Amino acid sequence: MTPLLSVKDLQVTFVTPDRTIHAVNGVSFDVKRGETLGILGESGSGKSVTLRSILKLHPAHRTRWSGSIALEGDEVLTMEGRALANLRGRRVSMIFQEPATAFDPVFTIGQQITESVRRHTGKSEAEAMKRAKDLLEMVRIPSPAQRLAAYPHEMSGGMRQRAMIALALSCDPSLLLADEPTTALDATVQIQVLLLIRELQRELDLGVIFVTHDIGVAVEVSDRVGVMYAGKLVELAGVEQMADAPRHPYSRGLLASTVHDGMRGQRLEAIPGAPPDLGEVPAACSFAPRCKSVEPRCLAAPPPLKPVDDSHFVRCVVAA
Amino acid sequence: MLLYALRRLLYLVPVAFGVSLLVFALVHLAPGDAISAIVPPDAPQEVVDKLRTYYGFDKPLPVQYFRWMLVTLGGDFGTSIGTGRPVFEEVGGAFLNTIVLAIAACIVAFSLAVVLGTAAAYARSRAVDRIVTSIALIGVSVPHFWLAIVLVIVFSVELGWLPPMGLGPENVAGWRLDLDHLRYMILPTVALSMIPLGVMTRTVRSTVKEILNMEFVTALQAKGMNDGRILLHVLKNAAPTCLAVMGLQAGNLIGGSILIETVFSWPGTGFLLNSAIFRRDLPVLQGATLVLAFFFMMLNLTVDVIQTMVDPRIKRG
Ligand SMILES: Nc1ncnc2c1ncn2[C@@H]1O[C@H](COP(=O)(O)OP(=O)(O)OP(=O)(O)O)[C@@H](O)[C@H]1O
Ligand code: SF4
Ligand SMILES: [Mg+2]
Fold first, then answer.
1. Contacts with A192 (C-beta within 8 Å, 6 or more apart), sequence order
2. Residue A234 CA: which ligand 2 atom is closest?
3. A168–chain B nearest CA distance, Å
4. Which among B256, B248, B257 has a CA at the least distance from the CA of B302?
5. How far apart are CA B226 and CA B235, in angstroms?
6. Whether ipTM exceeds 0.85
């Protein structure tokens, strides 16, 4: 069976007049229908760039893509224009970190949901309005009919993120991309929104990629977890394996001693040292300068992602 | 919304009163005397006194003000000391001529500015952006009366395509909407639209550019909106800022440009004010200033109301 999404050796490079940034350097993973893949990693590790590549959202004139992103067998990276627009928001949709800035401030929530519905389903204005109201109900926004007429600034942060989820689900996508969807929210609201996403994901049998800084959140929502470092996945495993027995020295630093109850809110900044410069393609293990287990062979070539067992992969010559 | 507009209109009443007081004070505090400007220097004192009584200049200032207010409210702006014609006719005619030109210049400048500024903001090639930015810079920095003269030399004197001056063919006072009169408007409109074109192009470009970098634009792309639909979102977001600057620019044009109206012998407000100042024609000066001030207030009100309609974040308090 083909997976819902299959990313193979994805490389993303930004070329600007003054410099080149190798943001993603060979990322491969699959997502099945009904599965949540959590992606963890510190700031600048390429999580958002990977996620946005699935919708080809980067500025076309200065982004170089290579590798393959296949959605139900259709190659995304070669899509352009109308074909790409038909994919966006219809088969794959995205929830942004900051609902306050991801909604257009001068259009109502209702207008912004209905324009999406009408664009992809060809429904009439009235039908689209009806759909928008049902969606707000589905994400449990009280008095949805009134809320349709509200502007984004008239809602609370949690309410806006619910509306963002409603918008994302408005055209029955099969894959939902969530880029730190709860980071901007208060702790209690955070939990509610997480529970909502998980519940809707099960109900609608969605594939979800959930990017986060937050170990506790990743463990709570994910079926599998990938850890990114310097534009590569350094480890990919089922959530229990990742929580109980991480293999990569970087994942260990992040997780091994810390994943217990009440870890939500813990940020990934415990490992000394800084991530490498992305200006060049790495010629060795990118983590070597910060790694306690570094050996000469780590520096000979970039280590490949090797299986530990059939569902656990690690990019480390020592740990594999 | 209508209620909001009406309430704002009501607030204008005390402002209008203040403005009229200010206009009166400014005109009367300025040195010089209207009567001495129209009578010959050797005129006998009785004649001067008689004229002064006739025009009411012998009364104390507060009395003069209230008399002026009352008759003005009744629609009577008095008679021009310079021409003896009713001020209302003089000011009204000149004002209409200026407004016609101002509207034409606004239409030209604003529509061009929106197109050029948006194109520059969207442009990925630096060449397009540079060209537009240069146009904007030329617009604001070339002296427009100089440009007016150049236009006259090139298009009227050398090429003979367009009339160099005046309002219309028969040199009658009133402006009319027909092809002949429009031909006379072309050169002054071009000259007058330069500054607002430059200012607005810059404003539109920087506003649109800023909005294009906002996350909601990415979010619109992420939900599959086409470029036209995204442009609509961007322009609606840019509208409040651009409208505010447009209001200011339109206000400047309504004041009438003395220089442009002089170069083209266009009998507008700038022209009228200029001659009224030289003749110390107080009734005309007062009347024209009052009408202008009133128009500025209405313009501001209109801009405010439109802004409130476009941007839901502005409170209708
Ligand atoms: N459009 C772009 N043009 C140039 N460089 C970019 C662009 N987008 C991202 N980058 C760079 O790519 C690198 C990876 O960024 P990315 O946003 O994926 O990090 P992240 O893992 O999501 O971090 P965070 O947790 O802070 O969101 C960063 O160095 C960033 O500066
Ligand atoms: S390959 Fe070597 S340097 Fe890299 S993480 Fe593994 S042990 Fe550390
Ligand atoms: Mg990010």
1. A158
2. 5
3. 8
4. B248
5. 14
6. yes
Distance from CA of B232 to the nearest CA of A (A): 11
- How far is the C-alpha of B286 from the C-alpha of A232, rounded, in Å? 76
CATH numeric code, B104-278: 1.10.3720.10
In the CATH scheme, what is the code of domain A5-91+177-184+205-314?
Answer: 3.40.50.300
Q: Quick one: tokens of B95?
A: 């004002």
Out of A295, A305, A314, mutate this one to test ligand 2's pocket (max ligand atoms within 8 Å of CB): namely A295
Which residues contact ligand 2 via a Cβ below 6 A? A 249, 285, 287-288, 291, 293-295, 298, 303, 316-319
- pLDDT in 10s for each residue of chain B, 317 residues: 788 888 888 888 888 888 888 888 877 776 666 666 667 777 777 877 887 777 777 777 788 888 878 877 777 777 777 777 888 888 888 888 888 889 999 999 999 999 999 999 998 778 888 888 888 888 888 888 888 888 888 887 888 787 777 777 665 556 777 767 777 888 889 989 999 999 999 999 999 999 999 999 999 999 999 999 999 999 999 999 999 999 888 888 887 677 888 888 888 888 888 888 888 787 888 888 888 888 888 888 888 888 888 888 887 65
Domain ranges for chain B: 104-278
Residue A83 neighbours by CB under 8 Å, 6+ apart: none
Sign of the Cα pseudo-torsion (B212, B216, B222, B226, in order) = negative
Place of tokens 């009998």: B267
A87 chain-B contacts, CB cut-off 8 A: 224
Tell me the longest C-alpha to C-alpha distance in chain B.
86
Q: Each residue of A286-318: b (16+ CB within 10 Å) or e?
A: bbbebbeebeeebeeebbebeebeeebbbbbbb
Give the contacts of B48 (CB within 8 A, at least 6 positions apart): B35, B36, B39
Q: Which residues fall within 8 angstroms of residue B203, CB to CB, at 6 or more apart?
A: B113, B117, B241, B242, B245
Phi-psi region of B142 (alpha: psi -120 to 50; beta: other; left: phi over 0): beta
Distance, in Å, from the CA atom of B189 to the CA atom of B151, rounded to the nearest integer, reads: 11
Which of B215, B222, B310 shows the shortest C-beta gap to A101? B215
Provide the residue ranges of all domains of chain A, joining segments of one domain with +. 5-91+177-184+205-314
Which among A10, A12, A14 is the best mutation to test ligand 1's pocket, defined by most ligand atoms within 8 Å of the CB?
A14
Q: What are the backbone dihedrals phi and psi of residue B87, each rounded to the nearest 5 degrees, phi first?
A: -60, -35
- H-helix segments, chain B: 2-29, 34-38, 45-55, 61-73, 87-122, 126-141, 144-151, 179-212, 215-222, 227-254, 258-263, 269-279, 282-310
